[in-house]
Design goal:
Blueprint: H1 2-5, H2 8-26, H3 34-54, H4 61-66, H5 73-95, H6 99-102, H7 112-121, H8 126-134, H9 138-154, H10 158-174, H11 184-206, H12 218-222, H13 225-247, H14 253-259, H15 287-315, H16 322-336, H17 347-365
Length: about 400
């Protein structure tokens, strides 16, 4: 399993294969829709094969474990960044109605000023990572983790909840003692928590799922409503991808709106896209490219997504930089979510990657007060993560 977790293609291709399989089980697909599913599966398999040939891998868990960030320049800059994110989160909650309390269905209705606040507060998923890696004292560490997970619940942002839980699971897996097995219990608990929160918030913000009219199969019809939300969320992207490929629908406007901020609406519900169910308007990461440039465009975007993952992995070598880790976590997460909605090729990611590069540069310019090796772990540091290398 360690080998699979270190492969960049794991984060891009395995979720796509899983979503494609769930799609086949969830629907009685209309004629021609299966071609899109086959295209996704073949592309994922090809990227997995290329990944084996290239051999680019994440650093070994030993490299992650031996790095200490608390008390370093990177840790200081990261904590300052976390403080800014928290301020914007608090402003979001103080200045505007809280969707979970007032109206869960209003989660996506953002006033212009609140939208600007949300550009920063959306980075709340980084708070648990910074808390785990950069804070020695248990109380502030736990507060950072809790705040990073509670804020997206209050604003009914399931995406940020998943991003935070994914990042925590990754840190637990790669910062563990390599002599011990993967912490499956903790990772499973995080997964179950995410699924429960997802289902509950999905019901609160979207209401009953019974009014969705798609050609569901027996597996879906027999499932309880909470499971139906999960099946629908996992399968809707590949289903709509297959539908658009079968209908030979073309519309480059949506891709332009996605790539150029402010050029137009990003919601598929505000277009003439012939979706089978207008209220189920999510698509894969590659749907805008499919609609703009056909199957070749979709395949090209998959290759570009894999190339971006490779670049982020190489940013982790050889020192496992903290901001390189945040960059990888962001792109790895949106790669995991690529079967469900476009999240990789957006301006927010460009801004986040650029910000991390600037913060890393800033950390490098600060004076280094510690230039001697650390021979023993700090007593109040997270007990499972002793350190052995010099700080930076």
């Amino acid at each position: 399993m360690n080998g699979w977790l270190r492969r960049p293609s794991t984060y891009l291709c395995l979720p796509l294969l899983l979503a494609s399989g769930v799609t086949l089980l969830t629907y009685d697909l209309p004629p021609g829709y299966g071609q899109g599913i086959v295209l996704l599966v073949m592309a994922a398999a090809a990227i997995l094969a290329v990944d084996v040939v290239l051999g680019t891998r994440l650093p070994a868990p030993e490299r992650f474990r031996e790095r200490r960030y608390a008390g370093t320049r990177e840790g200081f800059v990261a904590l300052a960044f976390a403080a800014v994110v928290i301020v914007f989160c608090l402003l979001d909650l103080a200045l505007y109605p809280i969707p979970l309390i007032v109206d869960p269905s209003s989660y996506a209705s953002l006033e212009p000023c609140r939208e600007h606040l949300r550009h920063i507060s959306d980075m709340c998923w980084t708070l648990p990572v910074i808390g785990l890696l950069c804070v020695r004292q248990p109380l502030p560490r736990h507060l950072l983790i809790a705040f990073g997970l509670i804020f997206p619940v209050l604003v009914v942002d399931r995406n940020r909840i998943f991003a935070g839980l994914f990042s925590i699971a990754f840190v637990l897996a790669f910062r563990r003692d390599v002599a011990k097995p993967l912490p499956w219990k903790a990772i499973t608990a995080l997964g179950v928590l995410g699924c429960v929160v997802f289902s509950v918030l999905g019901t609160l913000r979207s209401g009953s799922i019974e009014n969705v009219t798609l050609p569901f199969g027996d597996l879906y019809r027999a499932a309880p409503q909470g499971v139906k939300w999960l099946l629908l969320y996992v399968s809707a992207g590949p289903y709509n991808f297959g539908a658009m490929l079968a209908k030979h629908y073309t519309n480059s406007a949506f891709l332009m709106h996605q790539l150029i901020p402010g050029s137009g609406p990003l919601l598929t519900g505000q277009t003439d896209i012939p979706l089978d169910a207008p209220n189920i308007n999510v698509g894969t990461e590659y749907l805008p490219f499919l609609m703009a440039w056909g199957a070749a465009g979709a395949l090209t975007s998959m290759a570009a997504a894999y190339a971006l993952l490779l670049w982020c992995v190489r940013r982790l070598h050889p020192r496992v930089s903290l901001f390189g880790l945040l960059m990888f976590l962001r792109i790895a997460y949106v790669s995991v979510m690529s079967p469900f909605a476009p999240q990789i090729f957006i301006a927010m990611n460009v801004g986040f990657l650029g910000l991390c590069l600037l913060l890393q540069l800033l950390a490098g310019l600060l004076p280094n007060r510690r230039d001697t090796p650390v021979s023993s772990p700090v007593p109040d540091e997270f007990p499972a993560w002793p350190t052995t290398t010099k700080s930076t």
